[in-house]
Structures are given as structure tokens and as C-alpha cells.
Amino acid sequence: MGTLKLLQGNEACAEGALYAGCTFFAGYPITPSTEVAEYLSRRLPLIGGAFIQMEDEIAAMGAVIGASLAGKKSLTATSGPGFSLKQENMGFGMLCEVPCVIVDVMRGGPSTGVPTGPSQSDIMQCKWGTHGDHPVICLTPGYVQEIFSETVRAFNLSERYRTPVIVAFDEIIGHMREKIEIPDKGVLEVENRKRPTCSPAEYKPFDETKGDVPPVADFFSGYRQHITGLNHHSDGFPVNAHPRIHTDEQRLIRKVEGNRKDIIRYETFMLEDAEVAIFAYGVSGRSGKNAVEQARAAGIKAGLFRPLTIWPFPEDEVAALASRVRAIVVPELSLGQIIFEVERCAKGKCRVEGIYRVDGDPITPEQIFDKIKEVK
Amino acid sequence: MSERYEVRFSGSGGQGLILAGVIFAEAATIFDKINAVQSQSYGPEARGGASKSEVIISDRPIDFPKARAIDLQLSLTQESCTKYYKDIKDTGTLLVDEDFVKDIPKGKFKVISMPIIRTASEEIGKAFVANIVALGAITALTGKVTIASVEKAVLSRVPKGTEELNKKALKAGYDMAKTKMN
């Protein structure tokens, strides 16, 4: 039995990071994510870790990359405007294959938007925010307990695939409090990156002959490292107009897309015999569950698909769903973003209907139930 | 969904109502071991504006975390009362501060008026414990969480050196509400 606590989503995120072995946080405070930083600023010094408030979000992302290259599990947390600022360095982390975790507690936007209001409108930015072809893993927990466990999983995936991982949730679950159980050490698996076993003379930081995820040495450990945002050879030095760029970029994408079975996780609720499916994550997924209960009580066969991994997108699962339900309802706190992915995968095999809301309140179960009645 | 019980603490930013909601939820979940979630809504200002904190209590898992059919609403300011009263159920209760909420909204719900802020400043001697006086009253009116658990939760959350003050404030609110209920 672990420890029972009443925690905010943001606090649970910080606890998850600590459980996963995070010893470094750099960030810049921004509502509604600040409690992640606040919590870790108190806790990290007590375990010999480091907390730095940087001059801005760009620098914070840079510090996280640096700390990770030095071998420390590293985290930053932010929201909309700060998430925009981090994008270039996130791309650097993806190309240079730096394990780290970025938390985005989504608030209304664009620009400063509604700092204290919930949103799910960064979800496409999570995938396409940085330029170029790049691998993205993004997790979308919906409950405080899940924020804890998915943060642990985010660290594990970042270490396993040597890539930045995003955890995205909304202001409501970031700020709300629920009872959670923090498991004892050893109950949840905690994974560490593969480090080289060869001699320093033989080591290359991007040696694709060692597999899609080459081992990585820590800076200052005696292994030579060269890190650049330019496309690079296996030794890390720049390469220009070369077939390697094509194959190496394919490898980066393959690390994630080729391991979909390992990365994709979701919850289904009463979906087996459903005629109407709801596709929703985060706080909208919570409303979706209540809407399914209301529909079932009214004799309508509704079910819920709630992704915990939104990127890579659960394409096969949504395609299979589309071929057996009459309609998929997609409630989201935006003016319609993730619905495009659902439509892409449904390929016209069923109706796809959105419910959108950006006024600072969540989509209610009743709003979803009304839509279910309309499309059944 | 009769098993779902919704409480809203509303007032002005800085009155400590989010903390009151957190303490109430902690008493329910950690000390009384019943399901509860606490959420909040506030503006960008650190002080002032209408602010609310909500606690849902249920014997089933709680998915939708916000209040929308309120059993008990506390309003310490006129602005928050006027802004938020519409979600109170017909069978619900509106608890207002008798000095600061003069314009009582019309509705089928029951209205209880108590000098919460005055009790804190005059009887207890510190206006800042008004949130704990209110919490005592809410504990009595809801009957969902034991006063012993609420007291434990209060003591685990308030600053050192203010324990006796807060215990007194909690009891004052609880007793005042009990009198109103009889």
C-alpha cells in the first residue's frame, strides 16, 4: 500500500516525475502550470536534485536538454505561450535524441488568451509545433491518479526511445484535487536510458548500427559527444545533402511510429456493443464517461474511447471503431482540432461529429448526451 | 444521480474559499474515506473578482468534476451570489453572509443568512478566519463529512500558531449553523 494524498493534478505530475527519478527541473512560471514548478522547487533540493527558474521558457527548455545530456532525468512544465516558445528547442531535442519530458497544462489561447481557463487547443501544436519531420510522443491523462502514472510513463518512454515526450492536460485537471495513491518505490517500473558498453574510442552518439535507439553516453563521462541541431553523421558532426539524412530521419520517425503497440494506450468504456462512440481525452473524456452512462440509462448503445496516448495517434483503433459504429462524437475544448485526425482515420465509414467549447467551462455530459441522441 | 452531492464555496478572491474547499475535500477523502473531488475557478487577479471552489461528494467514482446542480452554495459577497446562484437546485440551500449579501436572489431553494464575516472579526477576532467559520457552517448543513475529520483537515492545512484560532472559528460556524437548522 502506497501513500494516500489529496493532490492537485499539477502536484501529482511533480510526484510522478520524482517517482520516475527526475532530478532536474528548469522552467518559467506560467498559469496554470506553476504548481508543478512550485512543488519541485521545494522537493528537488531535498533529494540532491536541482531546480532552476530561468529567464524565460526558451532558456528553460535549453537547460532541460543540457541537464539530460549530462545524464539527469529532466522536466519542464509550461502552458500555451510558454509552450510556443519552447518549440524550437523541442525540435533540437528530437533531432539530437535527448530524453526529457515537457508538460503542457493547456489554457485558452491563442496568445495570452485565458490564463485561468481550460483548453485542449494545443493538441495539434504538440504534434506539429516544431518545424520539420519529427517524432512525437504525447500523453493525455484525464484523472489526477493518471497524471501521476502517465508522467512516470512519459519518463520511461523518453528514456526507452531517447526522445522528448510531452504530457498534455488541461487547466481543470491540472488544478483539481482528487485522492491519489502514490505507490511504494518499485511498484511501478522505472526505466533508464541505454548507455554505451563500448570503449570511448569506439563510441558514436548516433550509431544507427546499434539499432534504432543508439546508446547515449553522459557528457563529462569520458565519451566524446558532439551535439548539433544540424543533421549529423553517426559521430554527431554535421552532414549536408547526403542520403544519410533521409535514412536517419526515417529512423527517428520509426523509433516512435514503429513502436505504436508499445506506446499507444487508451481506455474503453462500454464500447463493445456501442452504436455511437465518443472519442475524448482529458476533462472531455471524463464528461464522455458520464454521457455514456446517461445514454445507456436511456437505452442508447453508446461507448467511450479515451486515448491516453494521443501522439502517435491511435489510427488502427479509430479505423476499426469507425467500421462498426454509426457515429463518432468528438468533444474537445477547442474549435475543432483532434476531430481532423478522427475523420482521417474514419475514412468516411461513419459520421464524425464535433462538440466544441472555448468559453472557459468544460463540455458537460449533457451536451454530449444531446449530441448522442442526435446522431444515434 | 441522487448519490452526487455538490457544494460550492463562492466569494471574492483572497477570502480563502479555495482553501476551504480543499480542506473540506481532504476531510472527506483522506479522513472520512469517501469519494470527493475539488475544483476551482477564478480570474487572473490575485484579490477581488468573483471566485469559486467546488467540492463534489459521491458514493460512486466522480467523472465530471464541476458542480451543475448544487445542493449547497455559500456566497460571502453579493457579486458571487448574483453570478453563481443559478446552478442551485430547487431542493438546495443558499448560505449567505448576512451583512454582505443583501439582495437575495429569488428561487425555490432554501436561504440561510448568517453573520459569517462579523463572527470571524468580532467573536474570533480575526477577519481572515471567515473561510473557516463558513467551513464549520457548511459541515453542519451538509452532514456529509464529520466535524472531527474537518477539524483534523483544518489543522493539517493552516499555518503553525493559528491552530486554536481556527478550531474556535470552525466551532463557531458549526454551532451557528446548527442553531439555524433547529
Textual characterization of the structure:
- The complex is a heterodimer of chains A (376) and B (182).
- Chain A has 376 residues and is of the alpha/beta class.
- Helix content of chain A is 38%, strand content 21%.
- Chain A has three domains: 3-182, Rossmann fold, CATH 3.40.50.970; 200-260, no CATH class; 264-375, Rossmann fold (3-Layer(aba) Sandwich), CATH 3.40.50.920.
- Chain A contains 13 helices and 15 strands.
- With 182 residues, chain B is α/β, with parallel strands linked by helices.
- In chain B, strand 4, helix 2 (78-84) and strand 5 (88-97) form a beta-alpha-beta unit.
- The two termini of chain B are 28 Å apart.
- The mean pLDDT of chain B is 94.
- The chains are: A alpha/beta (376), B alpha/beta (182).
- At the A-B interface, strand 1, helix 7, strand 9 and helix 10 of A face helix 1 and strand 2 of B.
Could you give a quick summary of the protein structure above?
Chain A is an alpha/beta fold.
